Amino acid sequence: MAKPTLFLTITILCIITITSNALIGGRTKIKDVKNNQEVQELGRYCVEENNRKVGSNGLKFVEVVKAESQVVSGTKYYLTIKAISSKGGKNSFFDAEIVVKPWVHSKELLTFRPGKGLK
């Protein structure tokens, strides 16, 4: 009788360990993005940094519409940003990835590319 109970206990502990480890380092959806000032400021920074890198003021930040975070060496943010073209006034969506390391006052824009919006 002790062997089946021990096997069941070990099996349950393994399942708990595996599922909890899957969450470590995973992406976490950020709720209430529109009212999250830090996320909105990061979105604005991404647009400004992209404009600086391409050498124009082609985009104007509107808002971050979706955001996720992931703990890496710092915090990596996955942002869906709505921006408006300064030339045609058309709203467009962009996907950006940015790593923030607050202890060294560092922000690094990793990617900024056209996105599909809220899909």
Automatic annotation (TrEMBL):
Residues 22-115 form the Cystatin domain. PROSITE patterns: CYSTATIN. SMART domains: CY. The chain crosses the membrane at residues 6-24. Keywords: Membrane, Protease inhibitor, Thiol protease inhibitor, Transmembrane, Transmembrane helix. GO terms for molecular function: cysteine-type endopeptidase inhibitor activity. It comes from the Eukaryota. Pfam families: SQAPI. CDD domains: CY. This is Cystatin.
